[in-house]
Design goal:
This protein has 480 residues and is of the alpha/beta class. 46% of the residues lie in helices and 12% in strands.
Length: 480
């Protein structure tokens, strides 16, 4: 029997309930790689009717910050990955780690080591010169030393045999124990090390499946040996391949390896981000778009790809636009209101946001882009795009605009079909192409030549604003 993190007891019988965990170190924000790891762990727990535990591995006191903790919690909350237990903080469990370390000492699975840094550096240099794998040589393994000011505690790794890892992604991985060394489990200042704390936490929290990046694969045989020494159940493992940039190199900030909350700030829908994350290394046939319910139903760790994935901001933007076009426009409008206010737009001065969503969702990749594409509906045109003016404002344009203004001003019913008919009348009367009328109109009402169909745009803008902006452009042309 061992004491777990909840001050209760459990026996070492086979764990039946699926329990996964996400255990980030709070030394920075929740990035794409961490968010994917969390998502896969969360999805598998939900798929199997299990539990998802959040653990904050904050033993690195110099680099861990509350700001980073908050950033991680905010990111997970935004993405909707609610934890069933936690968050648990390793810094609040030091007494438990001390207890387990003492247990390992008492059972002969750990020992005190007094090797100096100078000796270890010299050993490493010699091993590298001899083209050997650098590792501790077991100098203090059988000395029977006691605690002292400069001693560390090492785990007594088995000298013979091998560790077999049944990995759901990589298959069977076998590591010979002679390739491992006696790792430090407590530093000279009394602080427990990563491999010890992870083992104790996974044991106490009854973690059944450890889903994490494959950069941790070299830690797994060490952790399994410690779990065996403690008589604990061994979790099943799934080591996720890396996420690379579109160039195949390690993902960095220039590729988009930023906080997931930055994607929120840039106007991505959480549904699109979640969908994109799940497709970074997992597939279900050729299906690209999944509802959350479908993800939970279809996800399985055995279907995780063995090769690394390439992050593509263009693919994320494409997926976000798919969600903008398919989700309930009322719900999207509710989110758009937040971004409008964030960008200083007074939404009461223009059309209903649902109308904006319906008009612009096929032309906008993010909600922030939709804000900028719709700004002219709410604010006067501050200036005209110089290249647009040069290309489309010619001799005779003022006459065309004046004619359009006259026909629009007498419309009794302001809607797209009537507006289109009025514009077409000018096209026919002036014997010009439709763009000769539509483009100057766009410049008048938007400041540029970019907008949805001109009749729909004017319909949503309203008669009063349309006439006023045509007048302003006519003044601008006459003053040139």
């Amino acid at each position: 029997m061992v004491t777990n993190g909840y001050n209760t007891l459990f026996s070492a019988e086979k764990i039946m309930t699926v329990r996964t965990r996400f255990a980030p170190s709070p030394t920075g924000y929740l990035h794409i790689g961490g968010a994917r790891t969390s998502l896969f762990s969360w999805l598998y727990a939900k798929k199997m009717g299990g539990e998802f535990i959040l653990r904050i591995e904050d033993t690195d006191r110099e680099r861990s910050t509350q700001e980073a903790v908050d950033a991680i919690l905010d990111g997970m909350e935004w993405l909707g990955m609610e934890h069933d237990e936690g968050p648990f903080y390793q810094t609040q469990r030091f007494d438990r780690y001390k207890e387990v370390i003492q247990q390992l000492l008492d059972n002969g699975h750990a020992y005190y080591c007094s090797c100096s840094r100078e000796r270890l550096d010299k050993l490493r240099e010699q091993q590298m010169a001899d083209k050997e794998k650098p590792k501790y040589d077991g100098c203090c393994r059988e000395k029977g030393l006691s605690a002292a000011a400069d001693t560390v505690i090492r785990f007594k790794n088995p000298l013979d045999g091998e560790v077999t890892i049944i990995d759901h992604v990589r298959g069977t991985v076998v590591i010979k124990n002679k390739e491992l060394d006696d790792l430090i489990i407590e530093r000279s200042d009394g602080a427990p090390t990563y491999n010890l704390t992870v083992v104790v936490d996974d044991m106490d929290m009854k973690i059944s499946h450890v889903i994490r990046g494959d950069d941790h694969l070299n830690n797994t045989p060490r952790q399994i040996n410690i779990l065996n020494a403690l008589g604990a159940n061994i979790p099943e493992y799934a080591h996720l391949p890396m996420i690379n940039g579109p160039d195949g190199k390690k993902l960095s900030k220039r590729h988009g390896a930023v906080s997931v909350m930055q994607y929120h700030e840039e106007g991505y829908l959480k549904e699109a981000v979640i969908n994109y994350l799940v497709r970074l290394g997992w597939s279900y046939g050729d299906q690209e778009i999944f509802t959350m319910e479908e993800m939970i139903e279809k996800f399985d760790i055995k279907d995780i790809n063995k090769s690394s994935s390439n992050f593509s901001i263009e693919k994320l933007q494409w997926m976000n636009q798919q969600y903008l076009m398919s989700l309930d426009p009322v719900k999207i409008a509710e989110q758009l209101a937040f971004y409008m206010m964030e960008h200083g737009i007074k939404i009461e001065t223009g059309p209903a946001l649902v109308e904006i969503v319906l008009l612009l969702r096929e032309r906008s990749r993010t909600l922030v882009e939709m804000v900028e594409n719709s700004r002219f509906f709410y604010e006067p045109v501050a200036e005209y795009d110089a290249s647009a003016v040069k290309k489309h404002i010619k001799e005779g344009t003022a006459e065309i605009l004046a004619s359009v203004r006259q026909k629009l001003s007498v419309l009794e019913e302001w809607y797209a079909d009537n507006i289109h008919h009025a514009i077409q009348e000018v096209v026919n009367e002036k014997e010009v192409g439709f763009p000769k009328v539509a483009q100057p109109l766009r410049i008048a009402v938007t400041g540029s030549t970019t907008s949805p169909s001109i009749d729909t745009t004017l319909d949503l803008l309203g008669k009063e604003k349309t006439i006023d902006r045509i007048d302003r452009l006519l003044v601008f042309i006459n003053n040139q």
